[in-house]
Amino acid sequence: MPELDEIYATNSSTWWNENGPLKLIHVTNDIVVPYYLDVICQRFSKTSPINVKLLDVGCGGGLCTEKFGEAGYSVIGIDINPDLINIAKNHLHSSLRNVSYYTESIETHAENNAEKYDVVVINFVIQHLTDHEVFVRNCVECLKPGGTVLIGALGKNTGAWLMRKIYIEKMLKLFPPGLYDYNRCINASDLESMLKKYKCKTQETRGFFYNFLTGKFGWFPSSMGYYVLYAIKKD
Ligand SMILES: C[S@@+](CC[C@H](N)C(=O)[O-])C[C@H]1O[C@@H](n2cnc3c(N)ncnc32)[C@H](O)[C@@H]1O
Predict the structure, then answer these.
(1) For a Cys staple, 155 with which of 100, 176, 199, 224, CB 3.0–4.6 Å?
(2) Methyltransferase type domain: from which residue to which, for each copy (predicted)?
(3) Burial class of residue 70 in the structure, from the number of CB atoms within 10 Å of its CB (0-12 exposed, 13-18 middle, 19+ buried)
(4) What is the pLDDT of residue 175?
């Protein structure tokens, strides 16, 4: 089975191609990015967007990061993969001066940026990790008290996993084989408990599923497959 970095390196040049091998990331972002923007807009309705500091952890080629930048927020995108940071930098329009990218892990970033951000976004990174708790702790460390953390993730559920494997990977080929590892997924309830341990109270968890008829994701009353959540760090 190829390693994650290898999969992303092989497909990095097509990162921004909506119909390329990483199509799933694009269709997922179609539902989660408007949700993230709504939550941020509501939480910071009294603050000018440029004064809202946002960290996009594991930003990849910048698909979400740019959307936050276009909405006017002050955005920093970090990723451990230098190829993806190059893709993100090359794609960025020079007019988006409020967006910066760095090749850096969250572990290193947290050492020098404690309580710096109003918003931390973790969009579909967690399902690639072995130590979820250390990652969550470092992300929360970067968040100001009263700040908001937004997370998109894959639930750890056998039925949802088989659907994803058989239909989305093998039949529809919406992502390359080996991109996801069942053991690295995490259920929303476990993530909520982890956040609580680091003083973040979950405000909402929303499930969504892939609709094979429309080729799009739609909201769903269960978070066993895909979900987003947002939590607020205690003041
Ligand atoms: C599926 S991609 C997510 C891409 C992006 N968030 C998006 O929605 O378009 C996961 C990314 O997380 C990055 N990553 C994994 N562990 C990380 C860490 N400890 N610190 C920073 N980035 C990390 C990987 O290099 C990869 O690019």
Answers:
(1) 224
(2) 55-151
(3) middle
(4) 76
